[in-house]
Amino acid sequence: MLCPFNQEGCYRMKRTKILAIAAIASLTLSGCAAQEGAGDGDVAESTNVTVAAQAWMIDKFNMSAMVDTFEADNPGKTVTLVEYADNQALSNFALQWSQGESSQDIVVTDGASVGVQFLARDLIVDFNTTDFFSGSTAKDRFIGETLAFTSLGDVQFSIPIGLETYNINANKTFFAEAGLLNADGTIPNPTDWNDVYDMAAALTVREGGAVTRPGMTIQWGPNAVSTMIAVQQAVSGTLYKSDGETLTFDTPEMREVFEIWKKGADEGVFSIDTFANKDAGRSNFNAGNLPMLLQSVSHVAEATPTIGLENGAVVAMPGSLENGSYGFTAGILVPTASTNQALALQFIKDAMMSDLQVGVGDQWGKLPVLTEHFDALDAPWRDTVYDLVKISVAAPMYRDLARIQVDGKQMLQEYLTGAMDLNTFVDGLEAMIDGADKNPL
């Protein structure tokens, strides 16, 4: 049964003011300034904080409940949520911040590593220079090395929320029907990507020669580079060339994976639905219509109400048990241009880091970042996912990471649809990465 906070009717009744915007540019207009009465210059008397987040974050992080709780505990203070489309919109924010103004007091980013691009011009707050890491949010309260996902050197450029990792989400029902389960009823972990292909092929359904249900969907949409990073780390044990700094996908292991991906895409064994709709795989898996999904393993939790707790499983893709995968969190940033920083930090500390994270983990599979909330999460997949997170790696903290993500996705899709051969694809990918700004500062 879904938690009440996710029901549409309940959501609409929230007192939170959510501003859905038609264009990102409208977020940077002075008329949308986050601070009410911004001309008085009295930061200590701030009464409103504006939080910019993507629509899925507002829903899955239960941000409406965060706002309700915070406003109830702090009479006279209000929190406004505004939606932005995707990480490409962050450049619009940065333009305004560079001019010493900010319509946002808090920005939540999809993947904390993208926040690195704002460090060079001191556009975001270093949380180590604030009193945030005290009391309930002292650094030793965060689980494991979680803070490492949102730090660079001695700079804590954002606060993590929602621990995740990429791997294979699986529905055991289909594996049972295909006779692919182990004797103990578990799904065998594939030893290499040929095994993954064979499993997906056995799970693919055809009628009259046409594929009516693919065996697997791989996230090849906007997050395609995240998928590539996850698989490269798993099969090769590193993301980098011998210099330890330059991201590469030109390894024998990854070239073999690319060839298998192309074969599977050509045959319909691996769906390309995510080209047009990044949520296609997630939606089909959550509806109980897809055997395997390579994406964030949080979808096992999401699918539970439909497929049943006993049928959701995390299957380790080849190499991930030894080498890890792509581990990540969303990142909570505070622009240095914000005139409401004190209230913003209070909202992050009291509301975003609250025990509401337990419900978020239970329903959406995004693990709490504070130990006390992680320990309170009672889910059978919790420790399996966390064990994978612990050995997984963050995306490279490059200033041009967002560009690599956009261009890399386009190149991969062109390769998978036959617009270029493997050598042209890999060579172009490497040249693009070599030419990118890989300096974080």
Count of individual beta strands: 14
How far is the N terminus from the C terminus?
Answer: 46 Å
Name of the CATH superfamily of the largest domain = Periplasmic binding protein-like II
Based on helices, strands and strand pairing, what is the structural class? alpha/beta
Shape: globular
Helical segment count: 17
What is the CATH C level class of the largest domain, in words?
Alpha Beta
CATH topology tier name of the largest domain: D-Maltodextrin-Binding Protein, domain 2
| Fraction of helical residues | 25-40%
In the residues, how many domains can be counted?
Answer: 2
Rg over CA atoms, rounded to whole Å, is 22 Å
Poorly predicted runs: 1-43
Q: How is this structure best summarized?
A:
The protein is α/β, with parallel strands linked by helices and 441 residues long. It contains 17 helices and 14 strands. The strands form three sheets. Strands 1, 2, 3, 4, 7, 10, 11, 12, 13 and 14 form a ten-stranded mixed sheet that branches. Strands 5-6 form a two-stranded antiparallel sheet. It has a two-stranded antiparallel sheet with strand order 8-9.
